[in-house]
Structures are given as structure tokens and as C-alpha cells.
Amino acid sequence: MSGMPEYKELTKQVSGKMRDLRQSQPDLMTAFSQLAAAGTKEGALDKKTRELVALGIAIACRCDDCIGFHVQALVKLGTTRAELEEVLGTAVYMGGGPSMMYATHALKAYEEFTA
């Protein structure tokens, strides 16, 4: 599929640049890390559910980098293809055509991370 990033490579590259920012912007990156931890913490919703919500938002916002990181986390959490596809369906319902296009990106990312 042309036009879509290679998600394993994308997340690797973005992680490297985030490490660079940790050097030059330690306060910002510490705060962002704390925000991420708080946003995915177990509570009334488990970690996988919170990551599924985050993926739906990443699709609606059309953020390929976010899609890569959230799909990677979901694969590590044991998300099935069926669970992922249901979230993709909800994202498309809420975001229409543009979300449909980015839902296909999320599916490609899932296929890469589970290969």
C-alpha cells in the first residue's frame, strides 16, 4: 500500500527524536511522560481499553506517529485483530471518510507489529 509509512521504522525514528528532545527539553519530556502514564493508568478502564480509545482518537486526528505507537502498545497488550477492527469501525463511524483512510493505516501497523 503506497502512501503509508512503515510503522516499525516510523516508531523507531520518532523514538530517536524524542530522545533528542529529552536532552534539550527535559522538563517538557518529563511532563509528557507523566501525562502519558496518567492517561494509560489502570483504573475503571484497563490499560488495553485506554489504548484502544487512544488509537481511535489517533485515527480521528490523522496522526500516523500516534497510530504506530498505540498499535505497538496494543499488540504488546495482546489485542486481537477482531478487537482492533471493532475500534477501527467506531473511529470510522465517528470520523467518516478521513477516519476510514487512517483506519487502514492502523490495520497496516497491526499487521507489521504482529508479523
Tell me what the structure shows.
InterPro entries: AhpD-like, AhpD_core, CMD-like. This protein is an all-alpha fold and 115 residues long. The protein has one domain (7-114): AhpD-like (Up-down Bundle), CATH 1.20.1290.10. The protein is built from 5 helices and no strands. The two termini are 16 Å apart. The mean pLDDT is 96.
Write the layout of secondary structure elements.
Elements lengths: L6 H18 L1 H15 L6 H15 L2 H13 L4 H34 L1
Can I get a quick summary?
Residues 26-108 form the Carboxymuconolactone decarboxylase-like domain. GO terms for molecular function: peroxiredoxin activity. The chain is mainly alpha-helical.
SSE string, helices as H and strands as E? HHHHH
Which percent range fits the helix content?
Answer: over 70%
Q: What fraction of the residues are assigned to beta strands by DSSP?
A: under 5%
CATH class category label:
Mainly Alpha
Mean pLDDT, to the nearest integer, reads 96
- How far apart the termini lie comes to 16 Å
Class by alpha and beta content: mainly alpha
Counting DSSP H or I runs of 4 or more residues, the number of helices is 5
Largest sheet, described in full?
none
CATH architectural label: Up-down Bundle
Contiguous low-pLDDT stretches (5 residues minimum) are none
Gyration radius from CA atoms, angstroms: 14 Å
Number of strands: 0
GO molecular function, one term: peroxiredoxin activity
Pfam families: CMD
Protein name: Carboxymuconolactone decarboxylase family protein
Domain Carboxymuconolactone decarboxylase-like: 26-108
